[in-house]
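User: I'm new to structure prediction. If I give you an amino acid sequence, what do you actually give back? Let's try with this one:
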Amino acid sequence: MTSKVEFRALRRVFGRTVALDGLDLTIEPGRLVALLGPSGCGKTTALRCVAGFERPDSGAVLIDGEDVTDVPANKRDAGMVFQSYSLFPNLNARDNVAFGPRVRKVPAAVRRARADELLELVGLPGLAGRYPHQLSGGQQQRVALARALALEPRVLLLDEPLSALDAKVRVALREEIRRLQLDLGITTIFVTHDQEEALSIADQVAVLRDGRLEQAGPPAEVYDRPATPFVAEFVGTMNHLPGRLAGDGKVTVLGQALPVDGPAPSGPEVDVLVRPEAVQVSLSPGADPGSGSGEVVAASFRGSSVRLRLLLDGQEILADVPGHEAARLAPGTRVDVRLVERPVLVAAR
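Assistant: Good question. You get back a string of structure tokens that encode the predicted 3D arrangement of the chain. For your 349 residues, that looks like this:
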């Protein structure tokens, strides 16, 4: 069973700190939505309001159209996985997974079979008898995930479940979570501050700032068409280039006239926000009148691409180029810099 989750004008205040400030967000059934934002933006508070661990000061949480704001946590059919695993140290993996069904007085044989089935589902066959201290961090988190699924919840809640793991394990486990979510079709809310994690795992990314929703949409849309300068800055890397509004819906930057994407400030002098992959770099400096002349300051290998740090008119900008071009773009090389011909986001300088 998949469920629809709605935040309606959700507000939560702790003393003088406003954790949620009128949050509105709808999560469609069977979707995995990543709540993304800096520390203190309200993403974990929002998750805890769905779980029933926090009660909002105003607004409502709805699951399948039912207002569950005042429903106790143990009656919401929501499974939660914490950052810290929170396994019972005195119980083995099987008994940790079976704990919820045991509380609900599910017969021993049934809950044991269900626990073994879930441990196999999360990739831990044969480890049912091990205790938490005998498991790696990644294995413990898999047990925590299986435990959250043991009661067949309507909604799965993940509170930065991978942040305590090393990079390789984190990537493997996030792919496993995505596979399980798709196989089970369970509505999932995934809290993270890791942009790459959110963009790679989610159907929809919701970017929060100071308790408010800045933008929600598919990962590609949030990355390629950020709704606000904050989203543009927070999701991925962004260059700020000086530009001047031309008055015809375009902005002049590096000698090019590019369309403005979205609303523009009133003043003529603006910052043009450009992703590193939208910066084109070529040799033969000065050959193109629509480009700027600069110098390669540094190069960082990033697998299939190389990130160049360029000095252009006294300003440093970043550009991503294919890895095979790196050899001819070594530090000290003079280059032409040009932007990809597409709409750009601008902000007041």
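You can read the tokens as a compact description of the fold. Here is one thing that stands out. The CA atoms of residues 296 and 329 lie 7 Å apart.
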